[in-house]
Amino acid sequence: MAVYKKTYRPYEGELTPSWSRFLVIPRYAFEELHGKRFLTIFFLASFIYPLICALIIYVQHNASALSLLGVQQQGARGLISINVTFFMSLLGWQSMLALFMASFIGPGLVSPDLSNNALSLYLARPFSRVEYVIGKMSVLAILMSLMTWIPGLLCFGLEGYLEGWQWMRDNARLASGVFFGSWVWIFILALLALALSAWVKWKPAAGGLMFGVFFVGSAFGAVINAVQRTRWGNLFNIGHLIGVVWVQLFEGPNQTTNGAVFFRAAQDEVLPLWTCWMALLAVALICLYMLARKIRGAEVVR
Amino acid sequence: MDSVIELDGLEVRFGQRVILKKLKAALTGRSVGLLGPNGAGKSTLINTLLGFHKPSAGTARILGRDVRTQAREIRSLVGYMPENDAYIASMTGVHMVRMMAELSGLPREHAIERAHEAFFYVGLGEVRYRNIGTYSLGMKQAAKLAQAIAHGPKVLFLDEPTNGLDPPARTRMIQLIQEIRDRGDLHILLSSHLLHDVEDCCDQVLILKDGNVAAFCNLEEERRANRRFLELETRGGNNGDFLAAVVKLGCETAPGVQGRIKLVMPEGLEVRQLYEVAAGQNVQIRRLNHKRDSLEDIFLKAMENPDGRL
User: Fold this and answer.
1) Are residues B119 and B193 in the same domain?
2) Mean of per-residue pLDDT scores for chain A
3) What CA–CA distance (Å, rounded) separates A118 from A28?
4) Chain A interface, mutation test: which of B52, B67, B131, most A Cβ atoms within 10 Å?
5) Strands B187-192, B31-35: parallel, antiparallel or unpaired by DSSP?
6) Which residues contact B64 (CB under 8 A, 6 or more apart)?
7) SS3 label, residue B218
8) Which residues neighbour A98 within 8 Å (Cβ) at sequence distance 6 or greater?
9) Which helix (DSSP H) or strand (DSSP E) does residue A295 occupy?
10) CB 3.0-4.6 Å disulfide test: which of A188, A243, A248, B83 passes with A263?
11) At how many degrees (to 10) do helices A107-115 and A203-211 cross?
12) What whole-number distance in Å separates Cα of residue A165 and Cα of residue A280?
């Protein structure tokens, strides 16, 4: 019907499947983010490191390119090895950029809805609180996936293609490490960003708090370690917790590294793996509790 | 008639505080008013019907669906215009309504079409591409109505729809609600503390006080009954003879002082016939009023009851 008729009429048409409705939120969020120049430039710039990695992998396997540079093929391999450190460094850099991205975008996802009472509009529809949180999380998850595990796996695939099937089979743990390690980071970051955004309605403060949780938390942990002569202060250092988990995911019990760039710990300060998993789980549960308290159609004043 | 909304011993508690106390009512009207002073539980009742609050006892049903077990299904049938400012400031009006329609399950192309229609319908067609954050209060109210109707609900919950509106905007909002009501495609539950809004838009009214049902009446029937109830002031002639003559016509009468008479006319009797009898008795009817037991009277009577219980 043409809009000029200006009348109310009921809707009798088909409906979309209810499982797919949470995807409406990221679609609209991306439309909005697309208009923000700084974020677009930052996002595109985040692909520079993976592109350099891909270039290194390519050049290492390209004899003519190496001869142009005047480097022997064996020499090039000795200079930069495509091994666990290479992929862990790629993940470390990209994860740090993902932290920045989550701090820029995350606070704008929930806090405006809370400060403008928009939650009652979302939740008065066949759309649950869980779907709302998943929808908002998926905005961050999609962006951070594009920054972390997707370029990581593409680099792995390129190396595997150039080295051969045997290399891929021998190093399958690297691929799983990139994939699962990224998802642990994405999950923790997305939950933290949403929880802080739900509790701190002022966007810049929520973004600042996000950095605070990581950097002040790590400083606080270091102070505890120094004063108490212990290593348990690292429980407040999310970077350390993630680093320990990554080493396990990338290398299993036969560890040759002490973590990725930005996520390393001194050998004598490393916490037991299970405590790191438990601490990360506790962070996730606290965030979920914070979200459950705030994401409601109507606020209850007891 | 099947109930649109059925309250079946509905009780809602926030901690130790009982907000809704075992409400029982069957609302069948096309447009039902929810009246009560501030804090009576009107918004809590609407929020409970939407599934925002869990009943601590009893239940409620909307078009036969139970709020305890079928909340999602209920929300797919309902359009909700909240009381407070509620919008997504960074979006244009039509963009927000389109997103809300999509969240209600409309495919993208239908959502776009209906969002534009809804915006024109509420009179915001010219400003639909402006950010909602820049709208005036009246425009925000209209935008809230647009998002509530864009997906074509079967029941529309309007929580204080005329809050903060100036008189022309209020009139426009009331006209919109009346138009929606008169189309007959959906049922309306209108919560307000403004009696005129309810009187103008509703055919049934549920009055809450302190979480209890203080009164429940059918305004249409009240209006019809009021039309038969007259107050007369007469002069001249013999008032006793005039009274006897109108009793013969089937009226119930109650004489007052100084020629005042209250009477209830039977069905079929016209006011014109009273004038004819008065002329026959040489009595002048100086004043004739239809008794107006307005919503205000009903509301005040309901409020007189100390605990608000019927």
Assistant:
1) yes
2) 90
3) 15
4) B52
5) parallel
6) B2
7) strand
8) A46, A143, A144, A147, A148, A185, A186, A189
9) none
10) A243
11) 140
12) 35
φ and ψ of A257, to 5 deg = -125, 170
Indicate the SS3 state at residue B23: strand
CB B84 within 8 A of CB B58: no
For residue A117 the two structure tokens come to 């009472």
CB atoms within 10 A of CB A242: 25
**Residues on chain B touching A116 (C-beta within 8 angstroms):** 85-89
Contact B168, B145 (CB under 8 A): no
Determine whether the interchain pair A28/B99 forms a contact, defined as Cβ–Cβ distance below 8 Å. yes
Q: How far apart are CA B189 and CA B163, in angstroms?
A: 16
Same domain, B245 and B197: no
Instruction: Using pLDDT thresholds of 50, 70 and 90, give the confidence band for residue B292.
Output: low
Residues B281 and B210 in one domain: no
Among A184, A167, A182, A179, smallest CA distance to A83 is for A167
pLDDT tens digits, residue range B43-70?
Answer: 999 999 999 999 999 999 999 999 999 9
Helix, strand or coil, per DSSP, at residue B107: coil
Q: Do A8 and B110 touch (CB under 8 A)?
A: no
Mean pLDDT of B141-155: 94
- CA dist., res. B143 & res. A165, Å (int): 59
- Domain identity same for B137 and B237: no
A191 contacts A137 by C-beta, under 8 angstroms = yes
Contact B52 A9 (CB under 8 A): no
- Whether B50 is in a domain gets the answer yes
Residues paired with B6 in a beta bridge: B26, B61
- Name which of A14, A117, A300 is nearest B85 (Cβ-Cβ): A117
At which residue do the structure tokens 């039977």 appear?
B266
Q: Domain limits at B239?
A: 228-290
Tell me the pTM: 0.86
Radius of gyration of chain A (CA): 23
Q: What is the distance between the alpha carbons of residues B75 and B79, in angstroms, rounded to a whole number?
A: 8
For residues B43 and B85, state if they share a domain: yes
Evaluate if residue B105 carries a pLDDT over 90.
yes
Distance CA A247, CA A232 (A): 18
Residue B11 one-letter amino acid? E
Do B232 and B218 share a structural domain?
Answer: no
Query: Do B139 and B284 share a domain, yes or no?
Result: no
Which residues in chain B have their CB less than 8 angstroms from residue A298's CB? 43, 47, 52-53
Do B185 and B279 fall within a single domain?
A: no
How far does B219 lie from chain A, in Å, by closest CA? 25
What is the number of H-type helices and E-type strands within chain A? Answer: 16, 0
Distance separating alpha carbons of residues A88 and A263, to the nearest angstrom: 10
Neighbours of B80 (CB within 10 A): 27
Reply yes or no on whether the pLDDT at B188 is more than 70. yes
Among partner residues B80, B91, B149, which is closest to A124 by beta-carbon distance? B80
Q: What percent of chain B has pLDDT over 70?
A: 95
Whether the Cβ atoms of residue B206 and residue B20 lie closer than 8 Å to each other: no
Bridge partners (DSSP) listed for residue B253: B263
Closest CA to B31 of B203, B219, B217: B203
- B117 and chain A: CB distance < 8 Å anywhere? yes
